[in-house]
Specification:
8 helices, two-stranded parallel ribbon, globular
């Protein structure tokens, strides 16, 4: 896409994001409140899952989702495996992507877009190769090409390639097509794998996992300490 065509497209995309997210927050506010109450009742506090992710140009921002897992721990105080903490209520939220709704606020504030690459952890940025870094040219999105093509069931290379393809071809027409596809897939539950990615491998890049490095998982929640008595990290 040429520079002259790029700016108008991004400006129009932003207008769609503001209108769409504002409309969604207003119309869905009763659902958001109901889910918040149910999460508090079923899973306890905190209500939200939080992560610091890389936004456009690698700028850090905080992702907010409804929690879908308990903070159940073993006898040593460590969190149980994700699959053991994901109950029926969490599966329901993930199946219909209801856990993602709080990020409509991130779209309204300009940290995210309705359509774009899935937000990934900030520590992954230095591990991207030149091709994969194209995903940082656009804002992360609630839905996108990679998410609709298999989301966390895809291998890392395939996911990041689809993100690069989207960044190269971004347009309002493509966004509209992807939004329609998203509505259809959520409504029909097509291709839904609720616990896919709940224990997804860490992304290490082309050089692979360094010797002695500890994999912390692709979807860690900063609102929950990994071990009882250890304070959760905070974004500074």
């Amino acid at each position: 896409m040429s520079r002259s065509a790029h700016w108008p497209t991004l400006a129009a995309k932003r207008l769609v994001d503001v209108a769409g997210s504002l409309f969604g927050l207003v119309v869905l506010s009763p659902i958001l409140l109901t889910i918040a109450v149910l999460v508090r009742r079923e899973l306890g506090s905190p209500i939200f899952f939080r992560q610091v992710c890389a936004g456009k140009n690698g700028r850090p921002f905080r992702v907010w989702k409804f929690r879908t897992m308990t903070d159940a721990r073993d006898s040593t105080g460590h969190l149980l495996p994700d699959r053991e903490r994901l109950g029926r209520f969490g599966v329901f939220l993930r199946t219909y992507s209801l856990d993602e709704l709080p990020n409509l606020l991130s779209v309204l504030l300009g940290d995210m877009s309705l359509v774009g690459p899935r937000p990934l952890l900030l520590r992954y940025v230095p591990r991207y190769n030149e091709r994969q870094r194209l995903r940082l040219k656009v804002k992360p999105g609630l839905t996108g090409l990679a998410q609709l093509s298999g989301r966390n069931s895809l291998e890392w290379d395939a996911r990041l390639e689809l993100d690069a393809v989207y960044a190269e071809r971004v347009s309002l027409l493509l966004d509209l097509r992807l939004m329609v596809m998203t509505i259809w897939k959520v409504a029909t539950r097509e291709g839904v794998i609720p616990n896919a990615g709940s224990e997804m491998e860490e992304f290490w890049g082309t050089l692979g996992k360094p010797q002695g490095a500890v994999s912390r998982g692709a979807d860690e929640d900063e609102s929950l300490p990994l071990h009882a008595g250890v304070p959760a990290k905070q974004m500074r």
